[in-house]
Specification:
mainly alpha, Four Helix Bundle (Hemerythrin (Met), subunit A), two-stranded antiparallel ribbon, 59% helix, 2% strand
């Protein structure tokens, strides 16, 4: 499959993530239920992955260097500001799209070089991981919203016109 197919899938996964969390207020966004991370953490966590993959490694730039310590994998639990995490997410995804828009099938088979070593997964696998990561946390976000008592939540995958399969 082409690189732009996978970029379209990422864009669709992002849009469904946003749709799933639409209307969450700051208080609910920061609220932790039992051992689950809060919604604001999830937003920041996905921003952090895109920052690491498509900005730091792909573009050699650093945005929001503090993000990994705040919402990184296996870091201590935190409840950051939902407003700040959405702001970081928007900046990061807009900047990531600069690289992703120009991604070629040849580049998908290459590996980033980071801190003197090749990254284990190639760019294509990282892109697939990013898409699937969104779907994982979209489901988690809906679960948290149900547990918070939110109603009228999305029940199924939305409008696929921007991600439709074509030959």
């Amino acid at each position: 499959m082409s690189s732009q197919f996978w970029v379209a899938q990422l864009h669709f996964a992002r849009s469904e993530f946003v749709r799933c969390l639409e209307g969450v207020n700051e208080e609910d966004g920061r609220r932790r239920i039992e051992n689950l991370n809060c919604i604001s953490w999830i937003v920041g966590h996905l921003a952090n992955q895109e920052n690491r993959f498509w900005i730091m490694r792909a573009q050699g730039r650093t945005l929001f260097p503090e993000l990994n310590d705040l919402v990184g994998f296996r870091k201590p639990a935190s409840s950051p500001s939902l407003r700040e995490m959405w702001s970081a997410w928007r900046t990061i995804t807009d900047t990531a799209d600069i690289y992703l828009a120009a991604l070629t099938p040849e580049q998908m088979r290459t590996n980033f070089h980071w801190h003197g070593e090749d990254i284990r997964e190639n760019v294509g696998t990282m892109l697939m991981r990013n898409v699937y990561h969104y779907w994982f946390h979209t489901g988690q976000g809906l679960l948290i919203r149900k547990m918070l008592g939110h109603s009228k939540l999305p029940e199924f995958v939305g409008d696929m016109s921007r991600a439709a399969y074509s030959i």
